[in-house]
Amino acid sequence: MLRRMRHRTPNALADRHGVGIPRVDASRGEGYPRRQGEQPVDEIETLSGKSAGDENFPVASWLLPSRLRPHVAAFYRFARGADDIADNPNLTPQVKVAQLDRLALTLGGTATDDHDAGIAVKMRASLTATGVTDQHCLDLLDAFRQDATQSRYEDWEELMAYCAQSANPVGRYLLDLHGEDPAKYAASDPLCSALQIINHLQDAKEDYRTLDRVYVPLDWMMAEGLDVAALDSAVTDVRLRTVLNQCLDRVDALLERAKPLPLLLRSGRLALESAAILSLARNLAADLRIQDPIAARVTHGRTGFIVHATAGVLGALVRRALPDRAAPRVAAPPR
Questions:
Q1: Could you give phi then psi for residue 203, rounded to 5 degrees?
Q2: Are the C-beta atoms of 138 and 104 separated by less than 8 Å?
Q3: Whole-model pTM over 0.90
Q4: 245 and 286 in contact (C-beta within 8 Å)?
Q5: Full set of structural domains in the chain with CATH
């Protein structure tokens, strides 16, 4: 699912260097020429200069229905534009919150948005056209406000509460957009949270160095005798590796809870998209265990992205085609 598009922003989803599932025009099906002046989804840019092609996972890929891609693109623009506000080093926390509040008012139709060519106005129009609630956008704005005012997380539970607003609404938006049963949030939420934590681990050093944000539980670091400065080291030492592996253990558990999602979805296209994302997420989580994200950013790579995304899609096609397949059950979250 489209994870939250934070950090170079739960669809759930392209390698940082622009590698990804092939994309088509955001407003037409594959094979149609673009209208003059139109941009394909992977060329959409925001004030940060980042585009959908800079995400870890495919955003509005050709796997999704062509009629819905423009709405996913509007959601991406909205989330990325709001994220640009929260990450802007030239704005004070108070100004960031005020600008995010203005986006919320514009989304509700009670203010005029002049940020990034009216991203909230366009998002409101998309929500009106599709009948999707604005709550997912409002939850994202709450997470961006939190980014503007909070830079540390005491424990895993606090970090998961953050992910509930920063990542899970993305998957919920996609499910609603495709007319899926909200009961399936139980499978999409852990996937989106896992994607968010994977991204935190990929960018732990950069987030600390450039934004003074730490998305690694402080109690786990303290238990190993570490302070946050360890994230700015040249390499990961044994103690920090223990903490990172604790995070990855929880990520693996989240991905296991999300495993039934491709078989639960009524939309075949969304099911294939989610299967590709699950496969990519498992690959990145495994790579984060054997590579050092402090020494260098861990990514899929061109070949890895194609191989693992394709494997996920093919696996889902086979499983969904099996006769008399039993309905999968979603594991309850641990208490």
A1: -110, 20
A2: yes
A3: no
A4: no
A5: 41-321 (1.10.600.10)
